[in-house]
Structures are given as structure tokens and as C-alpha cells.
């Protein structure tokens, strides 16, 4: 979510076909999958879409990781704060690690996004073909389950990504420094010291993080997009009889007066705005899980793989709440929010465009 990773790109129907349900798609050949492409193809398309979006949003993921590790288990106001807010944190990363530091952990992030979104879109596509998304709440449930499965599969990549993004100069270092030389060196070091189980350390925080974020996004994204399309400059909803003509894009008030709309139907600006509105709900619900996930992944461990700071998910929640206050669970929420909207929209845009390319190769409906 997101990264959300994590957060970020959740399995949803293509943007040009909102609102739900996603199974009502025109132009699909009889006998074709409900989503228009086979689940196996969606695995590849979802992975590709997630990776393309990751390249553009990874700097915010680096900042989010640093902000969430800053002042770990210390009362507010008792520790230095090299990272203050998103913009100043971006500058601090550039000063310490250079401009390239904004793309720290990118290779691991791409691996995570490829595995996460590939598995997630595949599972969602299977649920869609099985007809589960036709039932009330089916879309949200399918998205949450698909996200949980994707989180488990991609957990090792998220573990390494977190380690690499936290690494920096001692003067501005936050959290434990694992000091890996590369992504391959990180995997090798973790496996050599703790075995296969060590690669899945922290997965207990990743599963609820992605499941909650996915469910929240699916429950709000389409409604938020429709809302921003329907609102006018004065905050009025359009009259049901509003004319739609090429020369007029807007609505009618109850008294018959016309007003312009912020966005036209199908506008990508409307989709982005909807993503940012939806991002408020997703950030509020997902950030506590995101903070816990980052802490569990990055904490130092004993020789047997046991965490030195946290025993597990609930212990991490309790320790953060008692030592850093409840607001400690919302560290980095600004970076989480700013990343959610663009990452979600970009992922869906790339996925939708790739799906349309595949559909053009399929025979038309008889």
C-alpha cells in the first residue's frame, strides 16, 4: 500500500468502465474471460503496470520509509528530526545521498510491485471470472483477499526494499541500518543468516496492511471519482436533467441556472482527483498498518531470527502507542497520501491500456 507498498495500485476494473460492477463489459467475445483477458495474461499486465508506476512514485516511498522509522520507540520531542515533512524530507535525502538517493531500493521495489500486482491482479481476475464480484461486497472482498495473497508472495522483496531505502549516512540515519551492498547481497545475507523463514520476516504486518488498504480503496475510489465529476465550481450537484452537449460541459441548478463542472466525464484529471479524494480514506485506514509493517521489516534480529524490538504485530502496535503516542502510528501519512493517488491512477492507467491492447487482438463478439 503501498510499499502499500504499498499501497498503492489495487485491483480494480479499468478506469473507463467505472462505476462497478466490473463484469458488465461490452465488446467481449462470447466465451471470453469476464475481464476480457485471461487471468494468466492479467498476471503479466498487472505486474508491468505496477512496475511502471513504481518508477515514478519510488521517491515518495523512500521518504515514507524514513519518516516512519524516525524516532522509533522514543517519546515525541526527545529525538533529532532530520526529516520534517515530505518536501523537506525529499531535500534531506538529496543532500545526504544525492539525487539518485531518491530511487534507493528501486530494483527491490520493482520486484515487489511485479510480484504483488501480478499475483493480485491474477487473483482478482480469477474471482471476476468465477462471478464472485457480482455479489454485494464481492468486489471489496475479492480485492482484499487478492491483496493478502499478493502480500505473502512478495514479502521478501518488500523486506529488502525497506532495508535498502532506510540505509543512509550516519548523520541522518533513522532506524536500524542493515548495510546491504546490493539487492542480491541483501537476499543472500538474509538467507545465509536466517534461512528461508528469514525472508518472510514481517509478513504478519504486510498482510493486514495490503488487505485493509485494498478494501478501503475499492470501497471509495469509484464513488470519489464520480463525486468529483458531478460537483460544480460552487459545490452543487448537477440537476438530473442536465443537458450534455459538445458546447456545454456543466450542470443545472434547481433554479435552472447553469454552472461549469470541474472535470469532463472520462477526464484523466477527474480520475486523478478521484484518486486523491479516495486517498484520504485509504491513508487514514492504512497508515497505522504501514508503519507497523515498516518497523517489523526493518527491526534488527537475533541469530535465531527473533526480533529485538518487537515480538509481532500486536506487540509492535502496543509499543508504538505507549512510547510514541497514537500519532506515532501515523508517521509518514503525508507521503503515504501523496503517493496513493498518483500510484493508483498510474497503475490502473497502464493496466487499462495494456488490457485494451490485448483485447484488440481478440476476435469480436459474433
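^ Assign residues to that structure.
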Amino acid at each position: 500500500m503501498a510499499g502499500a507498498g504499498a499501497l498503492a495500485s489495487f485491483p480494480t476494473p479499468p478506469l473507463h468502465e467505472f462505476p462497478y460492477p466490473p463484469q458488465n463489459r461490452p465488446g467481449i467475445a462470447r466465451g471470453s474471460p469476464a475481464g476480457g483477458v485471461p487471468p494468466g495474461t492479467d498476471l503479466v499486465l498487472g505486474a508491468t503496470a505496477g512496475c511502471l508506476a513504481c518508477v515514478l512514485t519510488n521517491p515518495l516511498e523512500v521518504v515514507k520509509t524514513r519518516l516512519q522509522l524516525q524516532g522509533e520507540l522514543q517519546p515525541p520531542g526527545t529525538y533529532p528530526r532530520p526529516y520534517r515533512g515530505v518536501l523537506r524530507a525529499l531535500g534531506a535525502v538529496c543532500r545526504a545521498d544525492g539525487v539518485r538517493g531518491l530511487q534507493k531500493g528501486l530494483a527491490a521495489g520493482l520486484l515487489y510491485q511485479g510480484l504483488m500486482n501480478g499475483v493480485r491482479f491474477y487473483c482478482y481476475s480469477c474471482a471476476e471470472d468465477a462471478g464472485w464480484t457480482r455479489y454485494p461486497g464481492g468486489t471489496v472482498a475479492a480485492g482484499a483477499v487478492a491483496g493478502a495473497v499478493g502480500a505473502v508472495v512478495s514479502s521478501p522483496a518488500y523486506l529488502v526494499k525497506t532495508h535498502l531505502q532506510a540505509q543512509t549516512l550516519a548523520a541522518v540515519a533513522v532506524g536500524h541500518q542493515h548495510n546491504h551492498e546490493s539487492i542480491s547481497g541483501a537476499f543472500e545475507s538474509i538467507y545465509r543468516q536466517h534461512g528461508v523463514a528469514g525472508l518472510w520476516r514481517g509478513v504478519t504486518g504486510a498482510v493486514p496492511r495490503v488487505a485493509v488498504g485494498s478494501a478501503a480503496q475499492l470501497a471509495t475510489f469509484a464513488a470519489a471519482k464520480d463525486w468529483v465529476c458531478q460537483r460544480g465550481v460552487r459545490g452543487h450537484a448537477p440537476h438530473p436533467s442536465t443537458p450534455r452537449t459538445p458546447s456545454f460541459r456543466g450542470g443545472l441548478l434547481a433554479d435552472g441556472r447553469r454552472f461549469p463542472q470541474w472535470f469532463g466525464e472520462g477526464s484523466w484529471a477527474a480520475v486523478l482527483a478521484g484518486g486523491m479524494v479516495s486517498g484520504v480514506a485509504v491513508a487514514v485506514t492504512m497508515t497505522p498498518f504501514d508503519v507497523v509493517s515498516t518497523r517489523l521489516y526493518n527491526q534488527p534480529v537475533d541469530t535465531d531470527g527473533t526480533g529485538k524490538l518487537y515480538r509481532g504485530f500486536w506487540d509492535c502496535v502496543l509499543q508504538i502507542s505507549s512510547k510514541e503516542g497514537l500519532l506515532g502510528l501515523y508517521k509518514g501519512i503525508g507521503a503515504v497520501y501523496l503517493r496513493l493517488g498518483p500510484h493508483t491512477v498510474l497503475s490502473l492507467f497502464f493496466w487499462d491500456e495494456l488490457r485494451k491492447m490485448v483485447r484488440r487482438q481478440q476476435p469480436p463478439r459474433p
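Strands lie at 250-252, 258-260.
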